[in-house]
Amino acid sequence: MPEIKTQHLFTLRLDVAPPSRIGATPGRNLNVVSIAGGTFEGERLRGTLAPGGSDWLEPRPDGSNLINVRAVLQTDDGALIAITYRGLRYTTPDVAERMQRGDAVDPSEYYFRVSVMFETSSEKYAWLNHIIAVATGERPPSGPIYHVFEVL
């Protein structure tokens, strides 16, 4: 059976605002988390996050959170890249309570994975338009960190 191979693309660190807790709507429970900024760095690209992105986070009764993020990366040479990713973070009630208190929780104590796509008009980074990436996430008190890998 063929294996999936990956290559580290970059590490993404987000600065986020406190969530806007929309609450239980007719279709879902919803929290909107605004992205205030951040950085990304890897061998082939690096830069900052433009303010204005957001995560439409859906907490579920089973302890999981559906993640739905749209943001804009700005490379250190000025290119703009739209990034979208969807995924899942699952914690036990004990771990969720510790995270909500702001405790540092080892990422091995929860599941945090996303699938990532990019869009750009930059010729230099056009190769991003033709890849899928996956990421493992961490949620320290300082804000989310994603280790993003290109699927080869």
Key terms:
single chain; about 150 residues; mainly beta; Porin; about 5% helix; globular
Radius of gyration: 16 Å
Spans of at least 5 consecutive residues whose pLDDT stays below 50 are none
N-to-C series of helices and strands: EEEEEEHEEE
Principal-axis shape:
globular
Biggest β-sheet strands, sense, barrel: 8 strands, antiparallel, barrel
Whole-number average pLDDT? 94
What amount of the residues lies in strands? over 45%
CATH architect. name: Beta Barrel
**Total individual domains:** 1
Query: Based on DSSP secondary structure assignment, what is the total number of beta strands?
Result: 9
If strands are numbered along the chain, what order do they take across the biggest sheet? Answer: 1-3-4-5-6-7-8-9
Q: In CATH's first tier, which class applies?
A: Mainly Beta
The name of the CATH topology is Porin
Number of helices: 1
Instruction: Bin the helical content.
Output: under 10%
Terminus-to-terminus distance: 16 Å
Instruction: Find the structural class using helix and strand composition.
Output: mainly beta
Can you walk me through this structure?
The protein is mainly β and 152 residues long. The chain has a single domain, classed as Beta Barrel (Porin), CATH 2.40.160. Helices cover 6% and strands 58% of the residues. Strands 1-3-4-5-6-7-8-9 form an eight-stranded antiparallel barrel. It is globular.
